Every structure is written in structure tokens, then in C-alpha cells.
Amino acid sequence: MSHPIYFVSLGPGDAELITLKSLHALQQADIIYCPSTVREPDKILSRAATLLHKLDIKGDIHLFSLPMSKDRTKAIKVYRQLFEKMRLEQKAGKRLAVAVEGDAGIYASVHYVLDLLEENGIPVEQLPGIPSFIAAEAAAKLHLISQKERLVIIPGNITSDELDMYLSHHHVPVIMKLSQCADIVQDYMESHPQYSYHYFENISTAEEYHSSHQAELKRRVFPYFSLMIIFNEQIRKDNSSK
Amino acid sequence: MSHPIYFVSLGPGDAELITLKSLHALQQADIIYCPSTVREPDKILSRAATLLHKLDIKGDIHLFSLPMSKDRTKAIKVYRQLFEKMRLEQKAGKRLAVAVEGDAGIYASVHYVLDLLEENGIPVEQLPGIPSFIAAEAAAKLHLISQKERLVIIPGNITSDELDMYLSHHHVPVIMKLSQCADIVQDYMESHPQYSYHYFENISTAEEYHSSHQAELKRRVFPYFSLMIIFNEQIRKDNSSK
């Protein structure tokens, strides 16, 4: 009998924010693959593997190292090798899982491997997890979207005109990978002080920080793991009084 | 000592999709409030309470009944009564929780009570949960957003022009409360057969159903708990080959 390969979502970083379903899948796995990055020679970082240790998972943890590069060719090579390994192990009756932070369907490039396995007739399952923007909203006790509002998730590429359009048309923009568009967002805050800016850094980790103080945010250097949620409070109030 | 009041997110419906954090908060609560609706006289429906029973939660479960009406006045009256009750119970040292399906920050009108409590200086905590659109994506093994794509969550109010705009500009639209705009979406499918339409009904329940067959979807009557995810596969392919 062959077991499906589980693509497990670990949630945003706090071990307690994993679902029971993901936890059970990991507890039953013989081998669990986790993405890692090499920051410096001999310094391997895998936030996923750290989480598995906290959750006391017993299966063998294998890291696959993703090159930090915008060129996808190298990452695709890593993923093809991973696919070949997993194909053989699954055939040999091993229970396999791939564990990723956040949710496996939200900006998770490992989905490439899931698609490859599926195209090759190997059974896969995808388990949902809490995305970072949902964890951020809860940490600040925000009502992220209500009534007729629309949520829009933006991966670090935004213009001032687009923000104007969203904020005047009932959208709540969430900007991920904020470090990629820090100047644009900080300039926008300067020219549009009437909106509410909720900033989050290293959400659900020991270094978690959030603030909605505009003066503070204008000076801050945004690290890689940061995001911003913006509200047009005037439109919110008009809607909720209807 | 007074305990914070927890606003607990139960996730989309499958008991296993609750987080460890939400489960622990519920296990420690003396009283848990759940929203319910009265469908017919003597027929009370609370999907949240049903989930708590499945999870074997021992605290007292109190239902509060929300009128099914677009007029918010009646719901606000219910929420004000709930606020008054919880304020007294919390003062008396009770451990309280409010349990809602999905995520407490995504279209959850009970957030009104959380805001009232906070305005009155009563400590509250909001725990994140899996929203239905994340559970839907995982059930169909979809890569919901990748690379430069933006996700937009729409609560049942959409025009054909807006869909055109989103689908030609790297947005992945997710339409919730699909029954409210069934005609518009079905006409759009008819006139835009080149896009991929992923339809979901009663996600994460025993009645879960999903399909991406356009001929089938054009004839289907969409129930209240349904949603649609639409992809412009051509733009996806162009992006991923870059």
C-alpha cells in the first residue's frame, strides 16, 4: 500500500498555531522534508525544522536548501531533485511529508513539487495553515474585513496610485515582503496621514513587533519578515453605521 | 485575578482544522459563547457548538441567537446584551471564550463585542483560524497565489468589469457568499470560458463538494456556503516561465 505525500502547513511561526490535522500528519511521517537557506557557510537556517523540534516530531527531518536568488532556475533544479527522491521513497512504502511555514498555497514555491508529483500520478494531500496576515490581524485584535470590504494581498510590489484605488474602493490592502517597497509605503504614509497603518514584524515569533504609530513607522527599517495592513477608517465608520 | 476573554477561531468546519492554541483556550474556559441561528421554530443551528462537542470541550456552552436580517440593529442589540453578560461574568472571575467558525477577523460580526470590551478596558485576546478560502485551496491542492500575484477576497458583490480588471492585472479573485451574485458569475463564465473556475460548497464538512467543470457549474444552484476561485492560467504560465 502506498501512502499519499502530505504537504503540511505549519502556520506563521508559533508552534501552537499549527492545526491538529497538520500535527497528526507530521507525527505519522517517516521522513519530513523542510526548506532551509544557507545564510553563511556552515550556518543553515530552517524555521520549519525548528518548529518540528518544538513540536517533538519523531520522523527523520531532511533539509533541502533553496538558493536565495531571483533566478528560479536553481530553485527548480533543487525541486526536481526533491521530486526524484520522494518518488522513490514513496514507492518503497515510506510515509512522507513536506513541511512549510505559513500556508502551502500562499507564495510557497514548493508547490512546484506538489504539482510535479500529481502530474506523475503520485497521491498528494495539501493541509491548510494560518497565513501570516491572519496571525498579524489576530495579534493586533483587528477586524480585517467586514461587511462589503474586500481584502487584497500584495507581494511587495505596489504603487501609490494602486493604494489610492484600493483605499477609496472598499479594499483593505495587506502588503507582504514590505522591505521590497519600503520607500513607496513610507512616502505614501507621509502624503496620506488620514489612513490607519498597522505594521508587523516577525509575527508569531519571539521577535514579534507591531505598531500603528506613524512617526515611528516612518523612521523604521523594515526587515524581510514584515507586513503592513492599511485601513480607510472613514469608509469603515460610514459602512458600519448603515 | 481577572482572565482575558478569548475570541477563538474554530477554522472552516473540520474539527481537526482547529489550532492547538484555540483548542487549549477552549479547554480552559468555564463558559463558551457560540453564535446560533434559528432556522425554524424549535430548530436552533450552531455549527460552532457542534464543533465544540466534537472536540469534547467541557466548559458550559451558551448560545446567542443572531437574527438573519440585513438590518444590523437587531444583531447589535444581541451583541450589547452579550457584552453586558460577559462583563459581569469576567468581573466575577470566570474564564470566558467566544467561539466562531472560520477566522474571527474575517467577516465575523461578533468582532463588534470584542471592540466594545476593549473600549471598556476589559482584556481580550483574538486567536487566528483557517479561513474557508484557505481550506478550499488546500482541498483542491491549488497554489492560490504565487510570485507577483495578488489575492482579492470579495464578499458576494462583484461586477463583470471588476472581474475583467482583476483577471487581467495579476489578481486571483475569490468570491465568497457566491449565492448573492450567482447570475453575474455564471454569465461571466459563459462569456469568459478561457479562465479556470474552481467552485467549493460546504468546505470542510461532510457535504463538501468542489468542481472546476464549467458545464456543471453553469447549471448549479449555489447554496449559502459556497465560494469561487478564478485563475487566468495564461498569465500564470507566462509568469512561472520567467
From TrEMBL, chains A, B:
InterPro entries: 4pyrrol_Mease, 4pyrrol_Methylase_sf, 4pyrrole_Mease_sub1, 4pyrrole_Mease_sub2, CobI/CbiL
UniProt KW S-adenosyl-L-methionine keyword: yes
UniProt-recorded Gene Ontology molecular function terms: precorrin-2 C20-methyltransferase activity
Assigned protein family: Belongs to the precorrin methyltransferase family.
Gene3D superfamilies from the UniProt entry: Cobalt-precorrin-4 Transmethylase, Domain 1 (3.40.1010.10), Methyltransferase, Cobalt-precorrin-4 Transmethylase, Domain 2 (3.30.950.10)
All residue ranges annotated as the Tetrapyrrole methylase domain in the record: 5-208
Pfam family, any one: TP_methylase
GO biological-process terms attached to the record: cobalamin biosynthetic process; methylation
Pathway membership, UniProt: Cofactor biosynthesis; adenosylcobalamin biosynthesis
Keyword Transferase: yes
Protein name per UniProt: Precorrin-2 C20-methyltransferase
Superkingdom field: Bacteria
Record keywords, A-Z: Cobalamin biosynthesis, Methyltransferase, S-adenosyl-L-methionine, Transferase
